[in-house]
Specification:
Layout: H1 2-14, H2 16-40, H3 45-56, H4 59-69, H5 73-90, H6 93-122, E1 134-143, E2 146-150, H7 155-164, E3 168-181, E4 188-195, E5 209-210, E6 226-229, H8 231-238, E7 248-251, E8 254-261, E9 277-280, H9 281-288, E10 302-307, H10 313-332, H11 341-344, E11 347-351, H12 364-396, H13 398-406, H14 411-440, H15 442-448, H16 461-487, H17 491-496, H18 502-539, E12 549-555, H19 563-578, E13 583-588, E14 603-604, E15 617-622, H20 626-630, E16 634-637, E17 651-655, H21 656-662, E18 672-675, E19 682-688, E20 702-707, H22 708-715, E21 722-727, H23 735-743, E22 751-756, H24 757-764, H25 766-800, H26 802-810, H27 815-848, H28 860-886, H29 890-896
Parallel strand pairs: 4-9, 6-8, 15-20, 17-19
Antiparallel strand pairs: 1-2, 1-10, 1-11, 3-4, 3-10, 5-8, 6-9, 7-8, 12-21, 12-22, 13-21, 14-18, 16-19, 17-20, 18-19
Length: about 900
C-alpha cells in the first residue's frame, strides 16, 4: 500500500502533465454523463450543459481539490517557483552573471581557505583512532628567567614516561629525518619517519601489503633493519609491486629490509613533508648514537599519548607532570649541577595533535585564521554588492510586484518566489566558488600545507558541506532584505505611475556602500602592515650575508672514517670548493644559523658567577676565512688568521652581545675564558657583530668563535664535513657546479648536499611572506569589489536623478560643477569609509601586532597610503557616471518625466 502511494506521489510530481490530462478527461467524462441525463429528460444541449455545470460545481475548484489530494502541492508550488525564478533570471542574463560572479569570488575565497584551515587546525590526521583522546606531549619549566615549553624530547625521557604514567593506555615516539634514499646517481633527499612500534596502534590503518614492525623489531639497543614503505613512494619507486617484500631500501646510512606497505593516505604525523618510509626509531637512533637510550642531552623525538577512557585532560596532565618531575630528578643523578624539579616547576602539558595548534607552533596557523577572517570580510563586501544589485532590481520590478499583489497573490508567496530567485543565484555562485576554489586554490595549499597534500576541494566532503552551508547563509543574507524591500510597495500609487521607495532604497544602498569602503580599508591596512613587515624582515641585518653564500654538507653514508680521515675529507672538500670558478672564499664550520649549533654552556670567567643565567651560549669553529666567507663584521679587535693554528695561543672572537653581558663596561680584548671543565685559557682577540641564528629579530644569542684547528686539537674532535662557500653573484647559480666538484672527493656511497643559504633564510621569513601574499590578494579583491559597488551605486543614482540634473543644466549649471557634484559623492563615501575602517583597523591592530616584524599597527605611512589608494579608486569609479551626468540633454530629461 505504501509503495503504491509512493509511486502515485512520484508520478504526480514528475508526470504532472500526464496526470493533468487524465484529470481533464475524467472531469469531462463525468460532466458529459450529467449533460446526457438532462438531455434525456427533454432539455436542449445548451440548457442541459448549463444545468450540469451548476450541479457539478466549480470545475477549477475540483481541480485544485484533486491536486491537493495528491499530497505534493507544496512541492509542486516550490517547483513552480524554481521555474519562475529561472525564467526571471534568464531574462536578465547580464544581471545574473554579475551576481553569480560576485558571489563566486566571495564564496570561492572562503571555501578555499576553509579547506586549508580544516587540514591545518581541525581535521585529525588520516586514520587516527579516537582523535579526541590523542595528544602531542609538551613540557614546561623555568629557565633563564622565563618559562620554556618544549615538545622535543630525549629517548631516555620517553622511557621514563612509559614507566611512570598511569593515565594513558599508549605512548609512542616519532620523528622525521631527511636522508638520502637510493644509491649513487639515483639517490634523492626524502623524509623518513622513525617511529616506535606502538605508533601504528594509534591508527586504524592496516598495511596494504605485508605488515608493520613489532615491539621486538623496535627493541633496544639497535632494533632491526626493517622498513614499511609509504603508499605513494611504493607506487612511484616500486610500481606498486606486491613482490617488494624482502627487497632492500637504502635510507641514510642504513640498509633496511622492506616488510610492508602502508595504506594509501597514511602519512603518520608529518609537519612539512609526508615520509617515504617508516623505520624503527631504535634503529634510526642507534645509527646516530649507540648511547641514545641513556642520554638526557640528545633531544630529537616527539611523543604521542592517548588518554585512558574516563581520564580527563586535567587528570592526565597532572599525571604527566609527576612523571616529568621524576624524570628530571633521574637526570639530576647524571648532572648534579641541575636544579631540583620543584625549583624549575617542571610541568607536563597535553596539546592537540595538530602541530599548528600547539604552544610552540609557528605563526602560520594564526595567519591562516586571520586570512580566514579576511576571506569572510571579502564575502561580506561581495554580499553588500549583491544586495545593492538586488535592491536596484527590486525598484525596477515595482510595477510587476504591485500588479501581482493587485491580482491577489499573497505577499508570503511573492516572498517565497523572490527568495527562490536569490537561492538560485547563490547556488550558481556556490558552484562557481567551489570550481574557483578547486582550480585556483593551489596557491593557498602551497603556502599553508605540505607539498604532498594535494586533495582538491571538489572531492572533499567536509569542504563541500561547508560550501553548501555558506551558500545557504549567503542566500539568506543577500536575498531577505531586498525581497522585503520589494514587497513594501504602494500598490495603488505604483500602478498609477507615482514614485515611491526611492529615497529609502538609496539610503540602504548608501549604508551598504559605506560598509564596503570601511571593510576594504581594514583589509588594505592589514595588507600594508604585512607588506611593511616583509620589507622590514628582508632588510633586517642578520649579521651575515645570505645571497652569495652556499652551505655544502657531506654525509658519509655508512662509510667508516676515523678522526684523521674525517679531518682529511673536510680539508679535501674545502680545497674542492675553492677550485670551483666563481667561488671567492670557503670555510669549514661546526655550527650554522638555523641548521644546528654546538652549545657548550656558559664560559668560566674570573670574577663572574651565574653566567648561564644571562642567555644561551653557542660555539662556532671555522677556518681562518670564516668571517670573510659569511660576511660577519669584526667591530673591535681582529679575526683569527692562519697564524692561529693548533700550536699557537688559543684565541676566541666573541659576539657584541656576549661582550656586553659577560664584560659589561669593560673592553674584553685580551680577557680570558675557559669552557666547562677544560683548563685551556682562551684569549679574546676580537668582537663580532651579533647574528640571528634561531629566530629572526629575536633576543641575540651569545656566540663565540675559535679557529677550527685549535678546536680540533683542544677538544680532540674531528672536523665536520660541512662548509660555507662565498660565490660571486647568487649562490643558487653555483649549486650544480659545487655538488659535482665536491662529490668527487667523497668515498663510497657518501653524498654531498648543496643548499643556497637564501633557501634556509627564506623558510624563516615564510610567515611574513605568506601573510603579505594573502592579505594583499584578498585586499585587492575586496578593493575591486568595492570599486564596482561604488560605480554601480553612483551610476544608478545618476540614472535616478536624470530629471534633477537636467533641471540644473537648464538653469545654467556648468559641466564641471555637475561632474564635481557626482565625484564628490564618491569621495565622501571613501572619506567616511577611511574614517570608520581606519578606526576599526587601529582597534584590531593589537591582535595582529604579534605577527608583524618591526611594524607598528598604527604606522602612519600605511594608513596614509591606504587612504590615498581608496580616494583614487573612488574618483576612478565615479568619473564615468559623472561624465554621463554632465552630458544630460535637459530637453530630453524633462520630456522623459
Amino acid at each position: 500500500m505504501m509503495l503504491a502511494d509512493l509511486r502515485y506521489r512520484l508520478r504526480a510530481l514528475f508526470r504532472r502533465d500526464a496526470m493533468e490530462r487524465e484529470l481533464t478527461d475524467e472531469l469531462g467524462f463525468h460532466l458529459e454523463l450529467e449533460i446526457g441525463k438532462h438531455m434525456r429528460a427533454g432539455l436542449s444541449r445548451a440548457e442541459a450543459e448549463r444545468r450540469a455545470r451548476i450541479e457539478f460545481g466549480g470545475v477549477e475548484q475540483i481541480r485544485e481539490d484533486a491536486r491537493a489530494a495528491r499530497g505534493v502541492a507544496r512541492l509542486d508550488a516550490l517547483l513552480q517557483d524554481v521555474r519562475y525564478g529561472w525564467r526571471s533570471l534568464t531574462s536578465r542574463p547580464g544581471f545574473a552573471a554579475a551576481v553569480v560572479l560576485t558571489l563566486g569570488l566571495g564564496i570561492g575565497a572562503n571555501v578555499a581557505m576553509f579547506g586549508v584551515l580544516d587540514r591545518l587546525l581541525l581535521r585529525p590526521p588520516a586514520f587516527l583512532s579516537a582523535p579526541d583522546a590523542v595528544h602531542r606531549v609538551y613540557w614546561s619549566f623555568v629557565w633563564d628567567g622565563g618559562v620554556r615549553t618544549e615538545r622535543i624530547f630525549e629517548y631516555r625521557r620517553y622511557l621514563d614516561l612509559k614507566q611512570s604514567v598511569t593515565s594513558f593506555d599508549a605512548l609512542a615516539a616519532f620523528t622525521d629525518a631527511t636522508v638520502a634514499i637510493g644509491r649513487g646517481a639515483d639517490s634523492r633527499q626524502m623524509t623518513v619517519a622513525a617511529v616506535s612500534a606502538s605508533f601504528f596502534d594509534f591508527f586504524d590503518a592496516p598495511a596494504t601489503v605485508g605488515r608493520y614492525f613489532t615491539e621486538q623489531e623496535d627493541a633496544m639497543p639497535a632494533g632491526q633493519n626493517v622498513a614499511v614503505l609509504a603508499h605513494g613512494f611504493w607506487q612511484s619507486a616500486y610500481g606498486g609491486r606486491s613482490t617488494v617484500l624482502g627487497e632492500e631500501l637504502y635510507a641514510g646510512e642504513v640498509r633496511y629490509a622492506i616488510i610492508g606497505v602502508a595504506p594509501q593516505g597514511f602519512v603518520g604525523m608529518p609537519v612539512d613533508e609526508a615520509p617515504a618510509a617508516f623505520v624503527p626509531i631504535t634503529t634510526y637512533a642507534h645509527a646516530g648514537s649507540p648511547d641514545f637510550a641513556q642520554d638526557y642531552s640528545w633531544s630529537w623525538l616527539e611523543i604521542l599519548a592517548r588518554r585512558r577512557s574516563g581520564v580527563s585532560v586535567e587528570q592526565a596532565s597532572a599525571d604527566l607532570s609527576v612523571a616529568f618531575a621524576r624524570s628530571w630528578e633521574a637526570q639530576r643523578e647524571q648532572a648534579s649541577s641541575q636544579p631540583p624539579a620543584a625549583e624549575v616547576r617542571v610541568a607536563g602539558e597535553l596539546s592537540p595533535v595538530h602541530f599548528a595548534r600547539g604552544p610552540d607552533a609557528g605563526p602560520e596557523g594564526r595567519i591562516a585564521l586571520w586570512v580566514m577572517g579576511v576571506a569572510l570580510i571579502v564575502l561580506l563586501i561581495a554580499a553588500a554588492n549583491v544586495i545593492n544589485l538586488m535592491l536596484a532590481r527590486a525598484l525596477h520590478r515595482r510595477r510587476e510586484i504591485a500588479l501581482r499583489l493587485a491580482l491577489g497573490v499573497s505577499r508570503g508567496r511573492l516572498l517565497q518566489q523572490l527568495m527562490m530567485e536569490t537561492l538560485l543565484l547563490a547556488l550558481l555562485g556556490g558552484v562557481a566558488g567551489v570550481a574557483a576554489a578547486h582550480w585556483g586554490g593551489g596557491v593557498l595549499r602551497a603556502l599553508f600545507l605540505r607539498a604532498d597534500d594535494v586533495a582538491g576541494v571538489a572531492t572533499d566532503g567536509r569542504t563541500l558541506v561547508f560550501a553548501g552551508i555558506l551558500t545557504l547563509a549567503t542566500a539568506l543574507l543577500t536575498g531577505f532584505a531586498p525581497a522585503l524591500q520589494a514587497l513594501r510597495v504602494d500598490v495603488a500609487g505604483t500602478l498609477k505611475g507615482a514614485r515611491d521607495g526611492g529615497y529609502r532604497s538609496s539610503r540602504v544602498r548608501s549604508t551598504l556602500l559605506l560598509l564596503q569602503a570601511a571593510l576594504s580599508v581594514v583589509l588594505l591596512v592589514g595588507a600594508g602592515l604585512f607588506v611593511r613587515s616583509l620589507l622590514n624582515v628582508r632588510s633586517h641585518d642578520l649579521g651575515y650575508d645570505v645571497d652569495p653564500v652556499v652551505i655544502v654538507e657531506a654525509n658519509a653514508r655508512g662509510v667508516e672514517l676515523n678522526r684523521d680521515q674525517r679531518n682529511a675529507l673536510a680539508d679535501r672538500m674545502l680545497e674542492a670548493a675553492l677550485a670551483v670558478p666563481g667561488v671567492r672564499s670557503a670555510s669549514l664550520l661546526t655550527s650554522a644559523p638555523f641548521l644546528g649549533s654546538e652549545g657548550r654552556g656558559a664560559p668560566v670567567v674570573a670574577g663572574r658567577d651565574s653566567l648561564n643565567l644571562l642567555g644561551r651560549y653557542v660555539l662556532q669553529a671555522g677556518s681562518p676565512s670564516y668571517f670573510q666567507t659569511v660576511g660577519t663584521d669584526i667591530v673591535r679587535g681582529r679575526a683569527f688568521t692562519t697564524a692561529d693554528g693548533a700550536g699557537s695561543m688559543p684565541v676566541v672572537v666573541i659576539s657584541e652581545g656576549m661582550a656586553h653581558a659577560v664584560w659589561p663596561g669593560v673592553d674584553p680584548i685580551g680577557a680570558q675564558m675557559r669552557l666547562g671543565n677544560d683548563t685551556t685559557a682562551w684569549t679574546v682577540i676580537g668582537v663580532a657583530e651579533n647574528i640571528d641564528a634561531r629566530e629572526i629579530g629575536g633576543d641575540p644569542e651569545f656566540w663565540y668563535y675559535m679557529p677550527i684547528e685549535q678546536h680540533k686539537a683542544v677538544f680532540n674532535a674531528a672536523a665536520r664535513p660541512v662548509l660555507f662557500a662565498r660565490v660571486q653573484g647568487q649562490g643558487s647559480d653555483y649549486v650544480a657546479a659545487l655538488r659535482e666538484r665536491v662529490q668527487r672527493e667523497l668515498p663510497g656511497d657518501a653524498y654531498v648536499r648543496v643548499t643556497p643559504f637564501r633557501e634556509i633564510i627564506a623558510r624563516q621569513q615564510r610567515s611574513w611572506r605568506v601573510g603579505a601574499t594573502m592579505f594583499v590578494s584578498f585586499a585587492g579583491l575586496a578593493l575591486i569589489l568595492a570599486g564596482i559597488g561604488l560605480y554601480s551605486v553612483i551610476a544608478y543614482a545618476v540614472a535616478q536623478r536624470t530629471r534633477e540634473i537636467g533641471v540644473r543644466i537648464a538653469l545654467g549649471a556648468r559641466m564641471t560643477s555637475v561632474m564635481l557634484m557626482i565625484v564628490s559623492q564618491g569621495v565622501l563615501f571613501a572619506l567616511s569609509g577611511i574614517i570608520i575602517g581606519g578606526t576599526v583597523a587601529l582597534f584590531a591592530g593589537r591582535w595582529i601586532e604579534p605577527l608583524l616584524f618591526s611594524a607598528s599597527p598604527a604606522d602612519p605611512l600605511v594608513y596614509g597610503s591606504v587612504a590615498g589608494l581608496l580616494l583614487v579608486i573612488a574618483i576612478a569609479a565615479t568619473v564615468r557616471p559623472a561624465l554621463r551626468a554632465s552630458r544630460v540633454d535637459p530637453t530630453v530629461a524633462l520630456r522623459a518625466d
